[in-house]
Structures are given as structure tokens and as C-alpha cells.
UniProtKB/TrEMBL annotation:
Keywords: Membrane, Transmembrane, Transmembrane helix. The chain crosses the membrane at residues 6-29, 36-62, 68-88, 128-149. Pfam families: DUF1405. The keyword Repressor does not apply. This is Putative membrane protein YpjA. Coiled coil: none annotated. The keyword Transmembrane helix applies.
Length: 162
């Protein structure tokens, strides 16, 4: 199925997360912070990093034969989630950045699972597409919450001077 043009900004999930992070790194190298992109990068790196790990592992459990490509995807996407956590102390995210990011992320889930634009899945997982959509929504909420609470903890810590 060819992606309709109006969905293109929302379809390349992991590449978009990595692109957000590239812009964050460019800002860092320029001595700046771009907090909205930091929020988008952090949430989507965690979400799509963990999503790919879970889906590739689930494909193996469901009977798909995992090959080197699956393992490369598992480890590289796990690295995406880890890099979001490692860079979190340098982010200057405010609550409104997280709200905008939450809208983007949940809107992406709607496009993926209500309009059939979800990422590629193993044939063995397709019978559970509704459950995967539900899992993905809650993974979005989890990723948003992780970044929100990290941001709250970081603000509290800076106020306390520690």
C-alpha cells in the first residue's frame, strides 16, 4: 500500500525519532537547546526504541525465525531508548513541550492503527494487530510519562541546588 501524501510526516516512526535527535545534537553543537525537539526526540526515541524491541521479540515468540536483521533491529532500537535516557540531563524541556509532543505522538498512533499506516509487522503478529495498536498507545503514554517525570525531577533538583 502506498502512503497517502498527507500521512508521510507521521509514517517513518524510527527515522523521524532519529531525525529529531539529529536536530537536538546540532543545537547542542551550536551551544543551544531546542526544547520542543528535545521533547519530541526523547519521547519518540523511547517509544519506537522499545516498540521495535518488543515487536521483534514477539515475532520470534510467535514463530517467526529471527535472523541477524532482527537482532540488529533489537539492539539498535534499544540503543535509541538508551540514548534518550543518557541525554535527558541536558534537555531543557518544559511541560508545554511535553503536551505538544503528546499530541504529536498520540496523533501518530491514530494514523498508524486507525488508518492502517502502522510499521511493518511480522506476518505472525498480524492476527494481534488490534492488541498491538492498544499496546502502542500505552507505550506512548509510558514514554510521555517517563519524559515528563524526568523533567519534573530535573526541575526540582535544579531548584534545590543539587
Amino acid at each position: 500500500m502506498q502512503t497517502p501524501i498527507h500521512f508521510i510526516p507521521f509514517v517513518p516512526d524510527s527515522p523521524t525519532a532519529s531525525l529529531f535527535f539529529v536536530f537536538v545534537l546540532i543545537a547542542f553543537l551550536s551551544g543551544k537547546n531546542w526544547p520542543l525537539l528535545e521533547a519530541l526526540a526523547a519521547v519518540t526515541l523511547i517509544k519506537y526504541g522499545l516498540w521495535a524491541v518488543v515487536m521483534n521479540t514477539a515475532a520470534g515468540i510467535a514463530g517467526d525465525t529471527l535472523n541477524w536483521t532482527h537482532y540488529m533491529l533489537i539492539f539498535s532500537h534499544l540503543g535509541m531508548a538508551i540514548q534518550a535516557v543518557l541525554y535527558a540531563p541536558f534537555f531543557r524541556i518544559k511541560t508545554w513541550h511535553i503536551v505538544v509532543t503528546a499530541l504529536w505522538t498520540v496523533h501518530n498512533d491514530i494514523i498508524d492503527y486507525l488508518f492502517g499506516m502502522q510499521p511493518w509487522l511480522s506476518r505472525e503478529l498480524m492476527p494481534w494487530i488490534n492488541e498491538i495498536g492498544y499496546f502502542t498507545f500505552w507505550l506512548s503514554i509510558f514514554s510521555i510519562a517517563v519524559v515528563y517525570f524526568q523533567q519534573q525531577w530535573q526541575q526540582k533538583r535544579s531548584i534545590e541546588g543539587g
